[in-house]
Prior knowledge:
2 domains, five-stranded antiparallel β-sheet, two-stranded antiparallel ribbon, 10 helices, binds L-homoserine, ATP-binding, homoserine kinase activity, ATP binding, Pseudomonas-type_ThrB, kinase
Amino acid sequence: MAVYTSLSDSDMRALVADYYLGELVSYQGISGGVENTNYFVNTTTGKYVLTLFEEFEFDEVPYFLDVVAHLKHKGFNVPAALIDIHGERLRMVNERPAIMVDCFSGSELKTTNEATCKEMGAALAKLHIAGEDFPQHRESHRGVAWWHATSQSIQSELEPEQANLLLSQIAEFDDFMADHADLPKTTIHGDLFYNNTLFDGESLSAIIDFYNACHSWVMYDLAIVVNDWCSDMTTGELDMAKYRALLKAYLYEREPSAEEVVAWPYMLRIAALRFWLSRLEAWHGAKHDPERLAQQHDPLEFQRILEARVRYTPTLEVS
Length: 319
Ligand SMILES: Nc1ncnc2c1ncn2[C@@H]1O[C@H](COP(=O)(O)OP(=O)(O)OP(=O)(O)O)[C@@H](O)[C@H]1O
Ligand SMILES: N[C@@H](CCO)C(=O)O
């Protein structure tokens, strides 16, 4: 279970007393995530989620809270940090930065289908448009500099064919970007996998986990979403019906430039590589700790997606 920081009953009671949330009724660690510690917190006024940030220091968190506040202001159902009795939205809890947010109704999808892909495509385009005027431009902490450094440091752990795939794909992307420095950017979610959404039936009810948000290429974010929502995880191949449903809904809301159309195959591949690499890094970092290793996502899924995108990438147009 991914609860890296454990809270006692008295910790939680004291914390809840610092918000306008009534009395603590119960709380439960959430097993789903891998990056942060999350708890469901039930009080006499409702249900909330406590997040303790395991990867960021206190000063790094406000950017993410500001992104969410910006999107909430524009009408998206996203988890804005609640204000405590001292007027603060961010605090330290057991030496980790922490926030409390509303717990949304709706459930995680077990898998995607054409209807949920269509919902996501439309919402993603609107998110990209809404993020354009967010004034803070933060680089991704898992962006170009990170994948250069990590691909070098992890090489010795890989089979020669894996290292070759990794390095050749990064080189190919760098070559492409050298001639396309003006590719459109916006504020992107950066990790909009379907387990970071909640649905009421086939209707999208909330988008969560904005802690990979950054200022980056619009098409990169679309590629992250397509790779997760539209791939067969056992083969890495795209499910073309889901792909068309997601893209059609996206393109109805936002028309990509000609340069973005050209960039699309590169973005699909580098987006697959980014998650292959982060999973490899987490996997190798946890390999001496069986409990932690068991919580990690399988890197092979994204190796297969990358290999599938190297074999074939569809165009961005849908007929
Ligand atoms: N505001 C919320 N309302 C309802 N459920 C939530 C909320 N926040 C988190 N959850 C639940 O907790 C799970 C884990 O949360 P989250 O994805 O933010 O954790 P994480 O460690 O950052 O995960 P990962 O990095 O693996 O995506 C979610 O999949 C969702 O089921
Ligand atoms: N969504 C990521 C984990 C959290 O960043 C993955 O599946 O590898």
